[in-house]
Amino acid sequence: MRLTELTKGGGCGCKISPAHLNELLNDPSNCDKSFEWLLVGRQGNEDSAAFRTPSGQIMLTSLDFFPPIVDDPMLWGRIASCNAISDIYAMGGQPLLATAILGFPVENVDNNAVRQILDGARLACEEAEIPIAGGHSINLSEPIFGLSVIGLVEERKLLRNNTSKPSDLILLTKPIGIGLVVSAIREQATGFDHTSPHYSDTVGIATQLNRFGAVAAEIDGVSSMTDVTGFGLIGHLHEMAQGAGTTAHIGISQVPLLSGAMLLAERGYQTGGAKRNRSHYSGDVSASLSIPDWKLRLLYDPQTNGGLLITIRRDALPTLMASAELQAQSVFVIGEMRERGSHHIMISS
């Protein structure tokens, strides 16, 4: 049985809709007690929690898991692990260790497949130079896998998602469209299967660690950072702009898009997650009427281990680009932050 047949959805597209999540988190009964050592909690939609230890170190902790995004168990384990580790990198930290979260229907998934899931996770963690120090597993009707990750960051390098300034440039490190391509392969759309070059291109992006986040945090002038996951480029960019009280101006032609995703979007394909994201965020987005709707739909596409969104002072861009070249890291300038306008996101052609 294909792993993706055991679940109704896969990857970060399974996130609860932003509207539903906001309703849950903003419930007054959920107000947290104040802890002076907690620097970053659940407010602000940050990638990780951050706390100061008695010795003064800043620890980061995050948890991420989801149902299978692909049928290859080793690949699923690797993608899920890269996605979980990304939350540490997205705040400028270095991961230290991980513990695994595994649930699967024991009657439908054999031990060999489970071993391959864990092997994929080990590959990702070895690349990140961290151990999988333990974990927890349960018998579950739908398979899930992910990691809880602990990291470390110097306080001066801790990056939030809400601290950009007007005139900062907006950077993206990976093309958009992961969610749409893997959904098409899952649904066996014409021309999209596991032998397709679109598949290999997409999983290559999804298995790339976002370790450049720790490099970017070293650069003076980087003002904020997050990663693009289940709420799509628009959703996570909206969090950055709303939190900072700015407006993000991006050019649709500057946003890198996977070729397979463009082909699918032009055919009219879109994911359920993209529809939910658009329903929630589109009221605060102004887009040029000349932009084809299929391109706009892609900006709402949920990503699994998508790229980093970085804001940076203009004068610091050459330094970051030089560091990116040394790391063989792609970086795309997609726009800039400006003073707050009528919408938090403005999209030009």
Can you lay out the helices and strands and say which pair or pack?
Layout: H1 18-25, E1 38-40, E2 49-52, E3 58-66, H2 73-89, E4 94-104, H3 111-127, E5 132-139, E6 144-153, E7 169-172, H4 178-186, H5 197-206, H6 212-216, E8 222-227, H7 232-244, E9 246-251, H8 259-267, H9 272-281, E10 285-287, H10 293-299, E11 308-312, H11 317-326, E12 332-339, E13 345-348
Helix pairs in contact: 2-3, 4-5, 4-8, 7-9, 8-10
Verbal overview:
This protein is α+β, with helices and mostly antiparallel strands and 349 residues long. The chain folds into two domains: 3-157, PurM-like, N-terminal domain (60s Ribosomal Protein L30, Chain: A); 169-348, PurM-like C-terminal domain (Phosphoribosyl-aminoimidazole Synthetase, Chain A, domain 2, Alpha-Beta Complex). The protein is 33% helix and 23% strand. The strands form two sheets. The chain has a seven-stranded mixed sheet with strand order 8-11-7-12-9-13-10. A hairpin with an 8-residue loop joins strand 1 (38-40) and strand 2. The protein is globular and about 55 Å long. The model has no long low-confidence stretch (mean pLDDT 92).
